[in-house]
Amino acid sequence: xxxxxxxxxxxxxxxxxxxxxxxxxxxxxxxxxxxxxxxxxxxxxxxxxxxxxxxxxxxxxxxxxxxxxxxxxxxxxxxxxxxxxxxxxxxxxxxxxxxxxxxxxxxxxxxxxxxxxxxxxxxxxxxxxxxxxxxxxxxxxxxxxxxxxxxxxxxxxxxxxxxxxxxxxxxxxxxxxxxxxxxxxxxxxxxxxxxxxxxxxxxxxxxxxxxxxxxxxxxxxxxxxxxxxxxxxxxxxxxxxxxxxxxxxxxxxxxxxxxxxxxxxxxxxxxxxxxxxxxxxxxxxxxxxxxxxxxxxxxxxxxxxxxxxxxxxxxxxxxxxxxxxxxxxxxxxxxxxxxxxxxxxxxxxxxxxxxxxxxxxxxxxxxxxxxxxxxxxxxxxxxxxxxxxxxxxxxxxxxxxxxxxxxxxxxxxxxxxxxxxxxxxxxxxxxxxxxxxxxxxxxxxxxxxxxxxxxxxxx
RNA sequence: GGCGCGAUAGCAAAGCGGUUAUGCAGCGGAUUGCAAAUCCGUUUAGCCCAGUUCGACUCUGGGUCGCGCCUCCA
Length: 459
Fold this sequence. Notes:
Elements: E1 3-6, E2 11-14, E3 22-31, H1 38-56, E4 60-68, H2 72-81, H3 85-102, H4 118-130, E5 134-136, E6 142-144, H5 160-166, E7 181-186, E8 204-206, H6 208-220, E9 224-230, H7 234-249, E10 254-260, E11 263-265, E12 268-269, H8 280-286, H9 289-297, E13 305-307, H10 309-328, H11 341-351, H12 356-373, H13 376-388, H14 396-401, H15 411-426, H16 430-442, E14 445-450, E15 453-458
Parallel strand pairs: 3-4, 3-9, 9-10, 11-13
Antiparallel strand pairs: 1-2, 5-6, 6-7, 7-8, 11-12, 14-15
Helix pairs in contact: 4-6, 4-7, 6-7, 9-10, 10-12, 11-12, 12-13, 15-16
The structure holds one RNA strand of 74 nucleotides.
């Protein structure tokens, strides 16, 4: 039985979908005005694994991950670049897809863009206004009246009084209450027509929180199973989503809220504002994408994850061990059989709030068995279980010999050197054989002699 | 100030009230011409102080330290 840590309950709970065999899941995706960084990579990989595990468990999953393509930062960046909003966002949507594909992240079933759901958002504002939860302020903005919604704070565990004590909320005299948030922003005279939509409250554009509420209910219904995102979205974004959706629809919005932990650099949150971020494509120049995916899945999704080259090197070494086991024994393609000891341990780990760290430990035990017994069925099990996590699906040789940098030895040169070393060994000229091996090692090539000849991999 | 999370061996990172986590690194052995890879064995743990218990890294309370949210953020 799958258990999920539900932020709403602050506890692990047994997962019971609304429809017995179906799971409807929404994850907050990217605001597309720049390249994705490692923090974005974590959300994508973590919820990709959630989605994969739900499917592996037999559920019919509908997975939605939105794209925010209208927002203050996008408008600002487009103006700086002197390009249209559309050109800017399309460019970074394409880049995001490249990054996600490289990391083995499967495409969600739907990737709704905010600008394509403006009518649904306006309907929602109208419904909120009708329910007495929204009002148009003097400046033209339509705001959400937070104090009129009873459950405000139930997700983040904050009370309105506590928030007030924080004194960090900017005072805006147009709001009835400083904690009210914007549903519909009135158009400014200097803003391009591209960022203005007509509405009964005048020209304007949606507030950030509104899109997820509107797109979620449009694609998954007013009440769905799982909503995920980074821990920094818990408040205010997800809290506001609940206020909007439940305030408009008068029913429970989401049953299970999941939040992944941050990627850190030097023990600090990786973020745009701190400027301490590494883009995915930057990291992929140096490390294999599967190594990055493995690095992310090595930690539990709610734990902090420290980024450094040393940690990536460590992940690379660990993944190399798994591929090395598969190199020695051919694994025929096989569906996962869930009756074996390893498979059951793996399943228990994944069912325990997606404990990928534990699941990977099972993979290493299985790799030991493969190395020990050279059993093709054990190798097949290793490959199929890893496949559930989106790992180990490549040809081992390709992984182990991949990553040649520019200027390095190519395969032909390596093989030629190996041939001459074998010739030297035949004449017992070990000094020459060792010299060749040393030269190769200095070029980043590790030789492994086996009874059947020599193989190589990149260090 | 309010709310929340965490502290595990040299590094990284899990489970668990009593029995080997796991990966890397180290040490000993097997194997090898020597290595590498692999296998076998093995050294390093559980922030501090109390309490509960026959027994706590694991539960409870109190400290200390770190991190996050309260403002855009995955």
